[in-house]
Design brief:
Elements (H helix, E strand, L loop, with lengths): L4 H7 L13 H9 L13 H11 L6 E3 L6 E3 L17 E7 L4 H13 L1 E4 L2 E4 L2 E5 L5 H14 L4 E4 L3 H10 L6 E5 L4 H11 L3 E4 L3 H13 L5 E4 L5 H17 L10 E2 L8 H13 L4 E4 L4 H15 L11 E5 L8 E5 L2 H14 L3 E6 L6 H6 L5 H11 L9 E4 L7 H7 L4 E4 L7 H7 L2
Parallel strand pairs: 3-6, 3-12, 6-7, 7-8, 8-9, 9-10, 11-12, 14-15, 14-16, 16-17
Antiparallel strand pairs: 1-2, 4-5, 13-15
Helix pairs in contact: 1-2, 5-6, 6-7, 10-11, 12-16, 14-15
Amino acid sequence: MALTGIEIYKKLPRTNCGDCGVPTCMAFAMKLAAGQAELSACPHVSDEVVAELDSASAPPIRPVTVGTGDESFKVGGETVLFRHEKTFVNPSGIGVLITDAMSDEDVDGRVDRINKLEYERVGLMLKGNIVVLKSVKGDAAAFEALAKKVAGATAKPIALLADDPAVLGQAAKAIADKKPVVGFATDGNADAVAEIAKELGVPVVAKADGIDAISALTKKLSDAGLKDIIIDTTPKNIKQALTDQVAVRRLAIHKTERTVGFPTMVFPNEMTDNPLKEAIYASMFIAKYGGIIVLSDVVGETLFPLLVARMNIYADPQRPMATTEGIYELNDPDENSPVVITTNFSLTYFIVSGEIEAGRVPTWLLVMDAEGLSVLTAWAAGKFVADAIGPFVKKVGIEEKIAKKRLIIPGFVAGISGELEEELPEWEIMIGPREAAYVTAFLKQLQ
């Protein structure tokens, strides 16, 4: 059970030294309780207290790091059932399945697609995360060769799945530097697979039929010294899969049942032969509560909507997505090009910039930090008003790039134009349209 700020404070040194970056130990304890600080920030806390607090404050779903390097990602670490309660923490990993029974052409195609299919949206790069290799032949040499081939062709993390520990171990050791996820650990081979995972220091996938069986298996693996576990309850259909996902999350969060407090791996590709239905199933697991979701293939028409759904679900509902403040050059503006200003709410920025770029009008776009709020909301909050816009325009450096000082403000805040003229007496303040769809026509009239 999570500790309160007061309970954490009693275990801190209580010196109020400020070395953690917070003025007092009480304030630091409150930040720890709220998940806004790390215990490692305090250099004076004892090892015993670190162990005690880490155990008490550990999230009910254990976070597991998959892979190494820039492409590594985390799954698990969740603390709530619904994102409006707090937020979901680590987005589901989306992977593609490759087996040792596939042709070289199929293997190369899948690897190439997961490498190349990336999409930029509201300033974020959306992409698949992991390549899942499965042995269906039971041939150790063939599986090792497949693992080496894929490891050399992608920087994505790799999961190795085989029922035979000998087949699994040979492939895992061949690409040990990739830190692959290994599985399947079952009731019959748990000891052998646990040894492979411990030797390589990698996560393990535990596979059992149903909640009770998986709970017993993860306890067995935990007793063997493994901490980073991913679970597969082997559901036979989508109804059972969704039931299992919800049950695992509820048991871990409400009942603090540590034996199921691990991220999951789900295989919608095994529940249908229809690619569109598979994508629908995958979208369900993004919401409820897949850790790693394995697809039969990755193609743009199904991967992109899944990535957008994941982005929306795992965005913090209490924190607007924001674009970096600054000057944006659209369509190669020159010293005679108009200057448009808006807030750094990502959706506003991408709509406005998209309309201007589509209209091919050379424009300087000023994006002002309004804490990620939209134009009207920022104006109402006093963050997009004349006495804030004026100093921003002066300091951002736009005056050095233009000859004619014309500043176009959104039509929704036309009321600040008079005050803004006082803040920027050398500028001509122009009131633009209310809707971004009319920005291009407005700018063309100025040419």
